[in-house]
Amino acid sequence: TETHDVVLVGGGSAGIATAASLLKRRPGLDIVVIEPRDQHYYQPGWTLVGGGVFERSDTERPMSEIMPKGVRWVRAAVAAFEPEANQVVLEDGARLKYRTLVAAPGIKLDWDRIEGLRETLGRNGVTSNYRFEMAPYTWELIQTLRDGTALFTQPPMPIKCAGAPQKAMYLACDYWRRHGRLDDIDVHFLNAGPVLFGVEDYVPALMTYVERYGIDLDFKENLVAVDGAAKVATFEVTTADGTTKPVRRAFDMIHVCPPQSAPDFVRDSPLAGDGGWIDVSPETLQHSRFGNIFGLGDACSAPNAKTAAAVRKQAPVVAVNILNVLDGKSPRAVYDGYGSCPLTVERGKIVLAEFGYGGKLLPTFPSWLVNGRKPTRLAWLLKEKLLPDIYWDLMLKGREWLAGPILLPHEPAEHAAQEACDTDG
Ligand code: FAD
Fold first, then answer.
1. Does residue 254 sit in the same domain as residue 268?
2. Which of 99, 246, 296, 419 is deepest in the core (most CB within 10 A)?
């Protein structure tokens, strides 16, 4: 069988951005993208669909349209990795051979880990912005609820876009406040974890909104079951002495963020490390045991915030390093852990969290323009008007605006300068 220069598993944010970045750097490269879906989704838009700002259709495009010209698209799902033989196995048993592999199959949404959830999702006041079909139902519930109890849940970390569960809640509260209903609605944020947001710097601004909206924060409460017909949710609550007990809460509406994990076929493969994630170097994104394999996006082990914003920075790093490996060199590009979470605290204002490894703040803009620790209108405009186009027209096309990779200086200087020019594309 034919051996391809690059085989890419997954045509999501990470797979497409990496393929495009590779082709920008080396036109004509032999790349195969393996992706089973017909549609590609702009998932960061789902929060705004659930908040009544975007239409669902704004967030999807046919895979055939966004697949970069020049790559071969294999419309199938990968069932297994065989790194010792430099090949992947498809669900129908076919094998594809590669010189280098990029694994980017995303994260698994584990709806079935919550008893009764799948049966009632989309009915009985049970919704989730984590599903394309369901985000419009969130907006419908927000508009129709006049009084009662609204629950918003957050599972244990890591999840993709850790801020999304509370973004849905703030947009709901803002709507109820503007329509004079908030006093009649009891809002609870039920968080399996111990903190409102993982990076402390942003918590004060978020707490201002929690107080303004009169939200009850309940930490260490993990959703385990939903009875849609009875409109009751069961949480496993961890008490101060470390024991757990079940607590039942009645609801009129509940927004569920599902538990998340590495995809099964990754977890059960030789690529998996701790927790089942693709075991990569946090800097070069190269696999810790197989030098010709790279992993990025939600499925990899790097401890960044799992976001499309992170992928925007990771894709050029992987592209440069894949070309280094194909050329028989060591990987030179490094990733700083950048991730971003635009927290929609009210309609028209966003707290723009941008940070890297260890919670180090990495703002894109000077603080006089956008102070990330404060809610700003400019950050909302960025999210509503600019980021979708940046995603479709720059990131997925390999035009690396503000995303050029950091290069290690161990190559001749002129080489490094050439790479720097290329990234302006
Ligand atoms: P995905 O984009 O999910 O793509 C994975 C792809 O792999 C899919 O196309 C899938 O079909 C494919 N695949 C799966 N299994 C296989 C297989 N066996 N074989 C082949 N292909 C396979 N990010 C932000 O930056 N800002 C935000 O505001 C933001 N908000 C969000 C809000 C919500 C509600 C959600 C759900 C996500 C949000 N994100 C946000 C996160 C962002 O969407 C993800 O981090 C990003 O899409 C990760 O890219 P990925 O390529 O790793 O995964």
1. no
2. 296
- Ligand 1 probe mutation, 7, 8, 13, 54, most atoms within 8 A of CB: 13
Q: Where are the alpha helices (DSSP H) in 338-381?
A: 377-381
Query: What's the CA gap between 362 and 71, in Å, rounded?
Result: 33
Residues with Cβ within 8 Å of 386's Cβ and at least 6 positions away in sequence, in order, are none
Residues 202 and 256 in one domain: yes
Q: How confident is the model at residue 304 (pLDDT cuts 50, 70, 90)?
A: very high
Tell me the average pLDDT across 32-48.
98
Q: Name the strand (E) or helix (H) holding 149.
A: strand 148-154
Cβ neighbours of 157 (radius 10 Å): 13
Same domain, 101 and 172: no
Q: CA-CA distances (angstroms) from residue 329 to 88, 134, 324? A: 24, 46, 5
Residue numbers of the domain that contains 62: 3-107+262-424
**pLDDT tens, position by position, 186-235:** 999 999 999 999 999 999 999 999 999 999 999 999 999 999 999 999 99
The catalytically annotated residue of 257, 300, 341, 421 is 341
Last residue of a domain, one of 211, 243, 260: 260
The question of whether 173 is a catalytic residue gets the answer: no
Report the alpha-carbon distance of residue 161 to residue 306 in Å, rounded: 6
**Domain at 146, CATH number:** 3.50.50.60
Active site includes 421?
no
Q: Scan for tokens 């927790």, then name that residue.
A: 275
Statement to judge: residues 74 and 95 lie in one domain: yes
Say how far apart CA 46 and CA 7 lie, in whole Å.
29
239-272: per-residue pLDDT in tens? Answer: 989 899 999 999 999 999 999 999 999 999 999 9
Domain boundary among 234, 260, 286: 260
